[in-house]
Every structure is written in structure tokens, then in C-alpha cells.
UniProtKB/TrEMBL annotation:
It comes from Neolewinella agarilytica. It is a multi-pass membrane protein. This is Membrane associated serine protease, rhomboid family. It is found in: Membrane. Keywords: Hydrolase, Membrane, Protease, Transmembrane, Transmembrane helix. The chain crosses the membrane at residues 21-43, 79-99, 111-129, 141-160, 167-190, 196-216. InterPro entries: DUF6576 (IPR046483), Peptidase_S54_rhomboid_dom (IPR022764), Rhomboid-like_sf (IPR035952). It comes from the Bacteria. GO terms for cellular component: membrane. Residues 241-302 are annotated as: Disordered. Residues 281-291 have a biased composition (Basic and acidic residues). Residues 297-329 form the DUF6576 domain.
């Protein structure tokens, strides 16, 4: 079963769309963190140790500039990190429902750049709100894909407001109504202090979704810098994994076996310059030493042919030499 699941995941990363890949990464990180939490509690008398809080701090963003200065990677990791199952579930459902529409209509290549851009916008809203208002009196951290997801939800709702969505019991509803109520719920949440940091993060993603569509309709893609950065990282990784020219095979494998019963040349070889005409046109030329030499023993002729194969390749042999080699390989 585990092998089958792993094969499905690998297949999805090979040919699947970006929405599914993002969901897989979020779920994988949640599962890993959950297993770590369970193990730490088991080995700590069923109490959550301080080490777990340290791990969360290494994944989450904070309004504290010192936290961000020494943990800059959290700008990226926080939007793929969840603790609570239902936090993960609702974010991924929203991403699946609305992100598939976004990828189909605006291109799969824009999904990850906008996801990251929305997540960064959500963090910026949270960071500024906590540092420019009275919200930042105590320490706080933020994590989750909500800002990134709300950015995509808002963007597709504005781009194709009349796109039909078929819901259970309710029937067909146009996309704009679903997006409107999702945004309106976040505005109402600003009136409470319950998860105020998360709500501000959502608002930041919503604003970025508006701006993305506004500028896209005017010919400017706000996700292009992030997309270029992702392309650079991808190309850099591919170049890093590419073998050096010294280790690359130039013309394919070649093998000649003296002790065996066969000699095989598996790659052709470019004709040397002395075999070309003065006008630059290559031609085959039978040379006197192409055929087995008279007066030589059978073994000497075989050795000479094998040396020629080693120096010039199997295709340099004449028909007589190939026939001689074929007969020699069939002798017992």
C-alpha cells in the first residue's frame, strides 16, 4: 500500500498540475510535524516539550524583526506549514476548488508564483499591522497557507465572476457570490480579536488578489519577478546536477573483446580528415591494409583487426576484415 501511495505521489509530481503539487507538499509537511509531535510527547512523559515550540518557531513568521532577521527562510516555509488538521483541511479544500479553475483559465505556470506572492503579501499585512498598531504588544507568530489561498480565491473570483460552480443541494452558483461571502467573512472577523493575526494575513492575500487581476488586465503580471526567481532556482539546480563535460560520453560506449566470441562496436565514429576529398566531401577509400594481410598467422591477423577497431572503430573495417572477424568469432 505504501509503495502504491508513493508511486502515485511521484507520478503526480511528474505530470500533475501545480495545485496538486502544492497540496501534496502541505500535507507532507503537516504529517511530518504531526509525527514529530507524537514522538516528542511519547519520549517526554506525554507532555509537549519546549523543543516542539522551537521547531514551530523555525517554520513560522513573526512580527518581531529579530525573528525574521535570523530566520529569513520562514518567509517561504510559513505558507506551507500547518499544525491543526482542520486548518490544513479547509485551506487545501479552498485551494483545490478555486485553484483548479485559476490554473485552467490563467495558466498552471502562474499558480505557484501567485501562491508565493499572496503568502508574502499576507505576511507583509500582518507584520505592518502588528508593528504600526497596538496589536504587537506581545510575542506572536503566524503560519498557514490562508493568505496565499485567499489571494488565488480572490483573483479567480474577480477574473471570471460569472463562472458557474455546481454545489451540493444549492445547485449552480456563480463564482462571484462564493468569493464575495468568503471575503465578507474575513472583514467581519476583523471585529474580533480571535486569530486577529491570521485574519490580517487573509486580508493581505485578498488585497494582492485584487491587485494581481487589476494589473494583469492592463498587461502587467505582478507574479513575474517571483516566476523569474523560481525559474532561476530550477535552472541552477539542473545545472548543478548536470554531469561535467569531462564525465560525459562523447560518442557513446564502445567495446572490443579479445577473449570472447564476439566483437561489437555500439557507436559510430566521425571520419578523420585524411579520408575527405580536397573539396570537403567525405568518401570511403579502400586502403591496401584494410584486408587481412598475407603471410600473417590467424592470431596475428585477428590482433591487427582488434587494434584497428580500438583505434578507428568497427566501421573502419573493410568487408573482408568484417568477414574474417565474423568467422573467427564463430570458431570454437
Amino acid at each position: 500500500m505504501l509503495q502504491s501511495i508513493w508511486d502515485d505521489v511521484r507520478n503526480e509530481f511528474s505530470i500533475g498540475n501545480m495545485i496538486n503539487k502544492i497540496i501534496i507538499v502541505n500535507v507532507a509537511i503537516w504529517m511530518t510535524i504531526s509525527i514529530v509531535w507524537v514522538l516528542l510527547r511519547i519520549f517526554n512523559g506525554m507532555e509537549t516539550p519546549a523543543l516542539y515550540g522551537t521547531i514551530v518557531d523555525m517554520m513560522a513568521v513573526s512580527h518581531d524583526w529579530k525573528h525574521m532577521l535570523f530566520r529569513p527562510w520562514t518567509l517561504l516555509t510559513h505558507m506551507f506549514f500547518h499544525e491543526a488538521f482542520f486548518h490544513l483541511l479547509w485551506n487545501m479544500l479552498y485551494l483545490f476548488w478555486f485553484g483548479r479553475i485559476f490554473g485552467d483559465l490563467l495558466g498552471d505556470h502562474r499558480v505557484l508564483p501567485l501562491y508565493i506572492t499572496g503568502g508574502l503579501a499576507g505576511f507583509a499585512a500582518y507584520f505592518l499591522a502588528y508593528n504600526l498598531t497596538g496589536l504587537g504588544a506581545g510575542p506572536s507568530i503566524a503560519y498557514g497557507a490562508s493568505g496565499a489561498v485567499f489571494c488565488i480565491v480572490t483573483a479567480i473570483g474577480i477574473y471570471v465572476p460569472d463562472y458557474p460552480i455546481r454545489l451540493f443541494i444549492l445547485g449552480t452558483i456563480r463564482l462571484k457570490y462564493l468569493v464575495f461571502f468568503a471575503i465578507f467573512a474575513q472583514i467581519l472577523a476583523l471585529g474580533t480579536m480571535d486569530n486577529i493575526g491570521g485574519t490580517i494575513d487573509h486580508i493581505g492575500g485578498i488585497i494582492m488578489g485584487f491587485l494581481f487581476v487589476f494589473y494583469l488586465k492592463r498587461g502587467s503580471d505582478l507574479t513575474k519577478p517571483v516566476g523569474n526567481a523560481l525559474n532561476w532556482v530550477t535552472k541552477s539546480w539542473q545545472n548543478l546536477m548536470k554531469p561535467s563535460p569531462d564525465h560525459q560520453q562523447r560518442s557513446g560506449p564502445r567495446a572490443a573483446y579479445r577473449a570472447g566470441k564476439s566483437v561489437k562496436e555500439t557507436a559510430t565514429k566521425t571520419r578523420p580528415s585524411f579520408m575527405r576529398k580536397a573539396g570537403g566531401k567525405a568518401r570511403d577509400r579502400q586502403q591496401d591494409d584494410n584486408s587481412p594481410r598475407a603471410g600473417m598467422s590467424h592470431q596475428e591477423q585477428l590482433d591487427a583487426i582488434l587494434d584497428k577497431i580500438k583505434d578507428k572503430g568497427y566501421n573502419s573495417l573493410s568487408k573482408e576484415e568484417k568477414d574474417f572477424l565474423f568467422r573467427a568469432s564463430n570458431q570454437k
